[in-house]
Design a protein that fits this description.
The structure holds 2 protein chains of 2 kinds.
Chain A lengths: L11 E5 L8 E7 L4 E6 L4 E7 L3 E7 L8 H10 L2 H7 L1 H13 L3 H11 L1
Antiparallel strand pairs in A: 1-2, 1-5, 2-3, 3-4
Chain B lengths: L3 H15 L6 E3 H11 L4 H10 L6 E3 H8 L5 H13 L7 H23 L1 H21 L35 H7 L10 H10 L5 H4 L3 E5 L8 E5 L39 E5 L8 E7 L5 E4 L2 H4 L4 E3 L4 E7 L13 H4 L12 H4 L13 H19 L3 H12 L16
Antiparallel strand pairs in B: 1-2, 3-4, 5-6, 5-9, 6-7, 7-8
Classes of the chains: A alpha+beta, B alpha+beta.
């Protein structure tokens, strides 16, 4: 796994880092130009839209998509590749989840945690 | 040439023709409808009431009318007129008029009972009742007629509709106009004249007024006559030399007792609260209810963390998400603000001067009232039973949680934390 193995290509699964859909994964359906791509994440609740590359963090997953594939095709390929489970198993996703749980801990949860750590 | 007798009859005839429901009294409604019928000016109504209504109750009885005019009341005429009321049909009243008359009669009946019970209170109540309809009518959207409480305000007040002109904030009738048309000046105001009238009637006055004007007080010295008459109501120490006019408050300030109490949505019965100030700061307590003053009633429970049934201010509390299922919580009736109010320590003991010395005098020990013990027990038992319902492991954790103290640790940012 070298540094130059994640390419911006049609079918690349990307993580949206900020904006309305931040925290979700999507697939690149089309490349518009140097900076922008068309993304679509029907299984993760991301509407088909233009997205700037600066907002995306590429993952190591890639699905076999024809370019400009419509949403239904993306959905089919996504579920066939079982990307939801694969994504959840990555330590990236696990870290995100644990961070989310930690920030949402209530006062009682913190007490229980402290007790458990003793 | 009409004789004196006939001329006298005209006035009587006028009364009879205005009193369309044959009640023997002219009400404001009847005056208004007569005014409209004859195309008189609106001042007709007010002037008639001013001139003829001696006891200012909004109804001109036949006797009042004759009195004002100096005419001898014709009993047979009025009796005949009144008898037509039972027939009802002769006056040609509509079904609605009959209903209105009936309702008015019921209101009058209840009004009479209120009158006989407490004269001064009725005036205030009538005033507030009349204010309420005006306010309600102003607030109501087009087409809604506010219903004044039947025992106080007469029905005619509900007929004057004052609508807001399409969300502009501007009302159809100005405040002054509404005042005029509803004849609100008729309401008994607590004027000095009325106060005197009430006093003369023998209505119960305030405690201050019931005190005699002078009190006999003994004074020393053999040559001073032994007693003096002292005025029980003192004159003010100084009177202003220039008239001071206080700027009138455009919006009346509400006293604390009348202010609206708010409660954060995050605070529910059974919620665990973290106390941030006071003797029990840092403790996690269970919220029971909000008292009338707005303060929160909480309990430790006492056996768990030493916090008793206590009042706590909402601002000095963090509401956590944790909630106990208290279910049907039954709090003793006597738990209110007066129950928790601080009592003044016993002042000046009538002991020897030595005992009064603040340094040597023993401090009055706090005596825990028996009722406090009982109430604490009854409330805490309910809270504890809610804990037991959680099941063994959770109950243990919850008890541990409630007995522990809250503190901010290094790296914790309260604005980032979820409680």
């Amino acid at each position: 796994m070298g540094k130059l193995d994640k390419f911006v290509e049609v079918g690349r699964v990307a993580f949206i880092a900020n904006g309305k859909d931040s925290g979700k994964v999507c697939a690149i359906a089309e490349i518009i130009d140097q900076n922008r791509v068309l993304i679509d994440g029907p299984c993760s609740g991301v509407r088909r839209q233009v997205c700037d590359m600066k907002r995306l963090h590429l993952t190591r997953f890639c699905i076999d998509l024809p370019h400009s594939a419509r949403t239904a095709v993306v959905r089919r390929k996504w579920t066939a590749a079982k990307l939801d489970e694969k994504w959840k198993e990555t330590s990236w996703a696990k870290k995100l989840e644990s961070r989310r749980l930690r920030t949402n801990m209530s006062d009682f949860d913190r007490f229980k945690l402290a007790r458990a750590k003793q | 040439m009409a004789s004196a007798q006939d001329e006298g009859m005209d006035f009587h005839k006028a009364f009879l023709s205005i009193d369309t429901d044959h009640s023997g009294e002219i009400t404001v409604d009847e005056l208004q409808s007569y005014c409209r019928k004859m195309n008189y000016q609106e001042t007709f109504v007010q002037k008639w009431l001013m001139l003829f209504d001696a006891d200012q109750n909004g109804r001109i009885t036949y006797d009042e009318y004759c009195n004002a005019l100096g005419l001898p009341p014709k009993k047979d005429v009025i009796a005949k007129h009144k008898s037509q009321q039972s027939k009802g049909k002769k006056s040609g009243k509509t079904a609605r008029a009959v209903k209105v008359a009936k309702r008015r009669k019921e209101q009058e009946e209840t009004r009479v009972t209120v009158e006989t019970v407490k004269p001064p209170v009725q005036e205030e109540v009538v005033q507030t009742a009349a204010v309420a309809p005006v306010a309600a009518s102003k607030a109501a959207a087009a087409g809604q007629a506010p219903q004044p409480p039947p025992s106080q305000a007469p029905s005619r007040r509900s007929r004057i509709r004052n609508e807001q002109l399409s969300y502009s904030g501007v009302m159809l009738h100005s405040r002054a106009r509404v005042f005029q048309r509803k004849a609100l000046y008729r309401l008994a105001k607590k004027s000095a004249a009325n106060k005197l009238a009430r006093k003369l009637k023998g209505a119960p006055s305030t405690a201050a007024q019931q005190r005699p004007a002078t009190v006999e007080k003994p004074i020393g010295g053999d040559k001073n006559g032994g007693t003096r008459q002292v005025a029980s109501r003192r004159q003010p120490r100084s009177l202003p030399t220039e008239p001071t006019s206080k700027p009138r408050r455009l919006r009346p300030v509400k006293t604390f007792a009348r202010q609206r109490r708010r409660l954060r949505a995050s605070i529910q019965p059974g919620s665990v609260l973290i106390l941030l100030a006071g003797r029990h700061r840092g403790k996690r307590v269970v919220f029971l209810k909000q008292l009338a003053s707005g303060l929160l009633l909480v309990t430790g429970p006492f056996k768990v963390n030493g916090c008793p049934l206590r009042r706590v201010c909402q601002s000095f509390v963090i509401a956590t998400r944790t909630r106990l299922e208290l279910g049907d919580l039954r709090l003793p009736e006597r738990l209110n603000d007066a129950y928790f109010r601080r009592t003044k320590k016993q002042s000046k003991q009538k002991a020897s001067p030595a005992a009064q010395d603040p340094f040597t005098r023993p401090e009055a020990a706090y005596q825990l009232a028996q009722e406090r013990r009982e109430d604490q027990k009854s409330v805490d038992s309910q809270v504890m039973s809610a804990l037991v319902k959680l099941g063994r492991p959770d109950k243990k954790l919850m008890l541990g949680y409630l007995s522990s103290l809250f503190s901010l640790k290094s790296g914790q940012r309260p604005h980032d934390m979820v409680f």
